[in-house]
Structures are given as structure tokens and as C-alpha cells.
Amino acid sequence: MHIRGGKTILSLMDVSFEVKKGEFLGLTGPSGIGKSSLLKCIYRTYVPTSGDIWYTDSMGDRVNLVTANEHEILRLRKYEIGYISQFLHVIPRVSAMDVITGALVEKGFDRKESEERAKEYLSRVGIPTSLWEMFPSTFSGGEKQRLNIIHAIISKPRMLLLDEPTASLDPNTKNEVVSLILELKKEGTAMIGVFHDHDTMIRLADKQYDLKLEKTKELCV
Amino acid sequence: MNNINMDHGCVLQVRNLSKKFGRGCPHCEKLTGPEFGSNVCPKCNSVVALHHVSFDLYQGEILGVVGESGSGKSSLVQCLYFDQQATSGEGYLSYYNDGEENIFQLPQSKKRYIRNHLMGMVYQNPLLGLRLGFTSGGNIAEKLLTADIYHYETIRERGKELLTRTEIPEYYMDEKPKRFSGGMQQRVQIAKALANNPPILLLDEVTTGLDVSVQAKVLDLIKCLQQELNISMLVVSHDLGVIRLLTNRTMVLKNGRIVERGLTDQILEDPQHNYTQLLVHSML
Ligand SMILES: Nc1ncnc2c1ncn2[C@@H]1O[C@H](COP(=O)(O)OP(=O)(O)OP(=O)(O)O)[C@@H](O)[C@H]1O
Ligand SMILES: [Mg+2]
Ligand SMILES: [Zn+2]
Q1: Which has fewest Cβ within 10 Å: A74, B30, B95, B145?
Q2: What is the DSSP string of A79-122?
């Protein structure tokens, strides 16, 4: 698989791996090797030059994420595949509470129930109640990041892509986030993640894939 | 013949839509376009505002249209709203006759029906969308009348409801938009466009010229409308920030042609076409 991002041409040669239900694959390799790019290719934010990415959806159908049409990708993003990036893009004037509730309502959950769950998750990652009705654009880096994480996991995606989601969190908050991720994993979510912090990687990953080494197996979830 | 793939939730299908200003000659299409960096035919001086534009709009989705000034964005929505007469092309609307008829070839009366009952438009220039000498309420009433709603009380009630929805204080109802701020005028335009409960909304640069905080409110309003009313929208903007916030899919226009289309995050982060790369990098 080759990946081109913006002006720089990164190339990942023959990346091959597979991830099963409830399994966490950690991506490792030196900075700049293309770990984030690989996650973006799986999410189709980047267009891989060649190769296949096979995903088995909740109906048991195998979908090639490289060639699936846009609406198919949007459907999977909405109902099955979550992605936690370093940044959260939200409309500036929507409150933190509404952002999180919206992640559930959009998927068809009842509003009341969604609000309850949003409160539970906001508390768990330690976002003070005084901030719930505030706009995330005014949040600190760490608060934004926590919001970003619960925004992606609250709806329990079947597959989750994580790009250094705990980078700027203090140890306590990081612990809470890691346990949320572990809970989700236990429920069967397949995960692929990048963590530059070795301890977190050890706690989460069932196996690791070093992008310098090349192995051949097709990716299926 | 049923051309539209409604099983998949497609509400509007456009194929090879073209719009030319001027007499035209056999060379217009061959001598214009992104590779010439121009939409003006060197032989006859006609403007090829749109050439073979095709896309599908799905139920409840916001589809973005980006491109530099003059690329044909306004021409596109104006052809769809029948303000401009398409030169050629096909359009099928799931809400009209089950998508059986090419809307661009309908007689005026049927086009008027589609415009009054099935579509809403928010113009780049509020002067085109509003009668500034009418009150806000009057503007909304005008749209309701065209949609065959004549009952005074109903019109009044619907007006209030729309102003609340678009967060316009109620006392603006009997004021003329002439004196309103830009943001408020856009809100009245949105209220007016929504009056007939259209399943499709066309928005041309709704936030252009508004200051950032007002912009945020308008964007927020549009997002809410999409989520709550499940309206399908075509959002035209040259502001990639607006496109990123509002849309899932985007098409890029240049000199009247679509040069790239895709998932919005992909267009912004991994643009494939040279022109899109330039456009995206110039915005960063
Ligand atoms: N009535 C007209 N007669 C002749 N040419 C026209 C007419 N209206 C538009 N054009 C031309 O058609 C092309 C497309 O114009 P259009 O208004 O669709 O651009 P746009 O992408 O909306 O630009 P902007 O971002 O500036 O609003 C331009 O070259 C414009 O000059
Ligand atoms: Mg325009
Ligand atoms: Zn010509």
C-alpha cells in the first residue's frame, strides 16, 4: 500500500496485518514512518495508491475500504468505524453536552437516554459540570482531547482507530481514558492505535505491528 | 423511464448539467476548462459557466461545492432553482413524479411548482432573496402564498415559528430587513427559504461577509436544521472552513467543471487534483 498525503509523498510498502474482534493492534515505528497516515487510509481520509483494506461489517459483508463508495464509507463511519484524531472539528457554538449527546442522537438513540449517557461519560473523564454547557472552542487542550475521545467511543463503534488520543493528559485522566478504552475492547471493538507513550501501549495492545518490518497477511476485522 | 436510484436515498440526480452565457460556437467546450484556466471561449467569447456537471444528492446530506470566484457555483444552484435556464443536462427529483421527468425540460408552470413547494434557496446576495421593503413577516408570507397557503392566521403562526427556529427576535417580524445586520438578513432569508418546508435547500455563500461569531451562529443553525428536519442541502462556499464544518462530501469546481469530488476530509487532507491541492494549501 502506498499513501500520499498532501505535498509529501510517504510510502508505506506492503503493509499487511489483521485485527480481530476485541483485539487491539498497536502500530509502532519511528516518527514519520506513516503511522497516522495508515490510520487515515483505513478511515479513507487518505486515498491509498494501491492495496486492499478488508473490513467485515456488522452484517457479515466484506467491504474493501479502499474502493467502497463514499456513501458506504459514510455509513460505516456513522455506525461502525470510529476515529480519534488529535483534533475535534465542531461547530463553534455547540455546547460540550450537545456535541456528545449528538454523537448518539445522530445514530438514532433516544435523546433522553443519550443525555444520560453523555453525562456519565463526561463525568468519567473528569470534565467538570461547569463546562458541560460551554463551547469546546474555549476548552484547554486536554479537555478538548477528552471530549474528542468520548465523542468517538460513546456510541461503541465496532472498530476504533486511535491516533495518540492520550498525548496531553495527566496520569489520572489518562488512566480513566485507558480504562474506558479497555471496557470497549472487552465488548468486542477491534482497535488499531498509535501511542508514543510506551506504558499505555503495553496496557492496551494485544499485539504490535512495527511499520519497519514487512509481513504479509490481509487485514480483516 | 425511472432514472433515479431512490432505493439508496438519492433525492436529486443531476447529469451533464451545462450552462452557457452567450451564443456559443462549436469550439466553446473544447477551448475552455481547467486546462485553459478559463471559461471564456476564445472564438466566440461565450462563457461556459458549467460544463457536464453531474452529482447525486442524498436524503439528509449536506453536499459541499467549493471553487474560486467565477468557477460556476452560483450558476449551479441558480440552474437548480430555475433562476437560470440550464443550457443542457438532466435533473431528476425523487419528490417530483418519482424522478421520472427531467426537471430542466419541464414547462414553466411545473418548474414554478418545484420551486415553490420542493426547494428553498438562500442567495449569496440578500437583495436577491429578500424584498427589503417588505417586513420579515411579509417576506415569509410571500413564500407561503406561493406555496398556496392563504389563511392569515396560519401564515402569521408559521412566520412566528420560523423566526423562533432561526433565532430572530419576534419583534423583527414587523420590521423591514433593510435595516437589519448582514447576519440577521441571512437568517430572514433562511426563514423564508424554509417557509414551505422544502425537502431540498440550496445555500449560496450564506456566511460570506459575516463576522466570525455571527458566522458560527448561522453554521450552527444550518447544522441543526439538517439534523432535526433531515433536509438535503447543497452548500456553496469558497470557505473551506465552512465546508469542513458542514459537509460530509464535497465537489470542487474549476472553470465550470468538477475537477474532484470525495469525502470532505479526504478532499481537504489528501486532495488528488492539482488544483484542489493549490486551493487547499492557499487556505492553510
Ligand atoms: N448573466 C451572466 N452573463 C454572462 N456571464 C455570466 C452571467 N452570470 C454569470 N456569468 C459568468 O459565469 C461564470 C460563473 O459565475 P458564477 O456566478 O456561477 O460564479 P461563482 O462560482 O458563484 O463565483 P463567486 O464565488 O464569485 O460567487 C463567471 O465567469 C461569470 O462571469
Ligand atoms: Mg457565487
Ligand atoms: Zn465558442
Answers
A1: B30
A2: HTEEEE-S-----TTS-HHHHHHHHHHTTT--HHHHHHHHHHHH
The pLDDT tens digits for A43-97 are 999 988 888 888 999 999 999 999 999 999 999 999 999 999 877 777 777 899 9
Q: Where are the domains of chain B?
A: 7-105+239-283
**Residue A109: HSE in the Cβ half-sphere, 13 Å Cα cutoff:** 20
The topology (CATH level 3) of A3-91+155-210 is Rossmann fold (3.40.50)
Of B219, B249, B281, the CB nearest to A70: B249
CATH architecture of B7-105+239-283: 3-Layer(aba) Sandwich (3.40)
B269 inside 8 A of chain A by CB: yes
Complex-level ipTM beyond the 0.95 threshold: no
Using an 8 Å Cβ cutoff, are A204 and A24 in contact? Answer: yes
At residue A161, φ and ψ (nearest 5 deg) are -110, 130
**Domain-wise residue ranges, chain A:** 3-91+155-210
B216 → closest Cβ in A47, A70, A93: A93
Residue of B nearest to A9 (CA): B270
Q: B270–A105: do the CB atoms touch at under 8 Å?
A: no
| Lookup: cell for B70 | 467565477
By C-alpha distance, which of B162, B45, B212 is closest to A92?
A: B212
Q: What residue's CA is closest to ligand 1, atom 29? A: B70
Whether A47 sits inside 8 A of B8 (CB atoms) is no
Strand partners, B17: B53
Q: Which residues line ligand 1 (CB under 6 A)?
A: B 21, 39, 47, 49, 67, 69-75, 124, 238
